[in-house]
Write a sequence for this structure.
């Protein structure tokens, strides 16, 4: 304890670990409705930020260890900084199918996206494993390459929607893609030359996570003329093996059938595919190791640091926000945590408010943004809005669904519980997000409207105005 005390170079009121939330600048927050927001994110040189905020000091180094008892952090270059309040925003890293296999890639930050792009440019066939955000994006975006997409479930996109929505989206995988859209106006991410030991090049080995439109600035093109996507449903990876291993196999016919590839993937449905490489799009693990070791943080089942309704961890004066934490407060019946940019921003902002309020001994209430889950994104070139318990999460059989679908145009699903709207999935330009958000928030009894609620001839926005 005394050794650390003596080593402290300086003690700050607030210390934030991680440049995802702390280091990005919100340039333009555009409120789509009360809880839905779209925003641009711009990476800026730290000198610009320090000039703009004279109370801010940016230290380019990996935090190697945290000493909660002596309230200090030690960086990879041996510097020690004290804190009054600390917020851990160290994000997450891909939960890969297998570690240290050069043929298995994960995508998280600019470096890993560039590595993927480089490998893809020479690839004729890739296997994508996973059924969440990254797999959905890649299966649609990758051009000039044969894609085998292995999913555990009966339908695509299980983390974001149900089988009905998946069915609506599937034709887009098979169809020719629309002409390239107008270039996206959001600023692109670039990798700055970082000092040795700075995050992204040090022991944590990863930069900040990518976000919306990450693939629009880079060509995701393989070495074939055409693209194709073949889906393998309800299967997992049984084994990944190299061509050397295959050649040792006594089964001559298998070797001939599979052809020559650098790597092979055997799935649990007894299918084996050769490919140039495998993308493991199988979720994330919160970045708590190794720098939080030696403390007594209470960790949730998903590996995140448990935080309460003031974003406080189990260690005194240590807060956490974003992908690294797991929300363990009594949650609103209409909200759930998902490791998304939107929630990382909201949590970071709210943690900052709580830290300041605690220093000033002021009360602070759980922010309104945690009342209702809302996410706006794009899949297969469709706008996708998810509200509340959009997949009937945690509702058991006690809920009703209303669906309206126009092929190639829109998919609207409403989740009702006890006659009240508790969730919705809106795909396409439905223009319903604001009205539905209000109906979910005000919990109006919608029983009298029955299926008319989704009658396309009724201007619902006008009706409930
Ligand atoms: C390919 C991809 C596409 C995505 N698309 C979307 C999307 O369209 N919409 C959406 O809402 N979300 C999206 N996400 C998810 C979103 O990017 C994350 O949820 C969000 O960025 C998490 O923010 P964060 O600040 O918690 O973590 P991160 O952005 O990962 O930031 C953590 C930071 O901490 C630093 N760090 C870690 N350990 C240390 C240490 N010991 N010392 C110092 N620094 C450290 C890291 O270098 C990093 O800079 C996407 C993610 C990926 C990978
Ligand atoms: N547009 C957006 O909003 C986007 C958001 N993101 C975010 O970025 C992060 C990383 O994305 P991603 O990696 O796609 O993570 P996700 O959590 O979105 O999806 C992971 C998927 O992999 C499945 N899975 C987990 N383990 C295995 C396994 N061993 N074998 C086969 N499948 C497995 C999961 O199934 P199960 O759920 O059953 O465990 C789930 O379908 C996520 O937080 C995601 O939300 C990423 C891209 C776009």
């Amino acid at each position: 304890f005394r050794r650390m005390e003596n080593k402290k170079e300086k003690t700050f009121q607030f210390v934030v670990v991680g440049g995802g939330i702390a280091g990005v600048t919100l340039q333009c927050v555009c409120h789509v409705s009360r809880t839905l927001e779209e925003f641009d994110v711009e990476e800026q040189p730290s000198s610009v930020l320090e000039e703009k905020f004279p109370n801010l000091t940016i230290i380019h180094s990996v935090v190697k260890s945290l000493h909660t008892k002596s309230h200090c952090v030690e960086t990879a270059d041996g510097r020690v900084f004290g804190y009054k309040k600390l917020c851990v925003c160290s994000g997450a890293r891909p939960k890969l199918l297998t570690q240290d296999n050069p043929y298995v890639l994960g995508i998280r930050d600019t470096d890993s996206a560039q590595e993927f792009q480089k490998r893809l440019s020479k690839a004729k066939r890739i296997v994508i494993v996973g059924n969440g955000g990254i797999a959905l994006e890649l299966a649609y975006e990758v051009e000039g390459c044969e894609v085998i997409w292995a999913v555990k479930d009966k339908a695509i996109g299980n983390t974001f929607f149900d089988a009905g929505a998946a069915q609506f989206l599937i034709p887009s995988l098979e169809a020719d893609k629309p002409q390239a859209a107008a270039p996206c106006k959001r600023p692109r991410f670039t990798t700055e030359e970082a000092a040795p030991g700075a995050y992204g090049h040090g022991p944590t080995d990863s930069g900040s996570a990518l976000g919306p439109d990450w693939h629009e600035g880079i060509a995701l093109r393989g070495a074939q003329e055409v693209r194709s996507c073949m889906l393998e449903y309800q299967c997992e990876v049984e084994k990944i093996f190299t061509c050397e291993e295959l050649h040792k196999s006594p089964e001559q016919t298998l070797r001939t059938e599979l052809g020559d590839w650098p790597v092979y993937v055997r799935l649990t449905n007894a299918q084996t595919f050769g490919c140039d490489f495998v993308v493991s799009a199988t979720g994330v693990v919160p970045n708590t190791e190794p720098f939080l070791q030696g403390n007594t943080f209470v960790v949730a089942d998903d590996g995140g640091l448990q935080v309460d309704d003031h974003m406080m961890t189990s260690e005194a004066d240590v807060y956490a926000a974003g992908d690294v934490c797991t929300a363990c407060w009594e949650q609103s019946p209409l909200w759930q945590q998902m490791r998304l940019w939107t929630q990382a921003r909201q949590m970071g902002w709210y943690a900052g408010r709580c830290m300041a309020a605690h220093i000033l001994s002021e009360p602070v209430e759980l922010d309104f943004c945690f009342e209702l889950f809302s996410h706006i994104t794009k899949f297969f070139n469709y706008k996708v809005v998810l509200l509340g318990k959009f997949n009937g999460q945690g509702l058991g059989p006690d809920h009703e669904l209303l669906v309206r679908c126009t092929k190639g145009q829109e998919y609207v699903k409403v989740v009702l519980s006890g006659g009240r709207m508790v969730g919705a999935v809106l795909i396409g330009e439905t223009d319903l997000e604001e009205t539905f958000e209000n109906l979910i928030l005000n919990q109006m009894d919608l029983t009298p409207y029955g299926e008319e609620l989704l009658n396309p001839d009724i201007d619902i926005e006008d009706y409930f105005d």
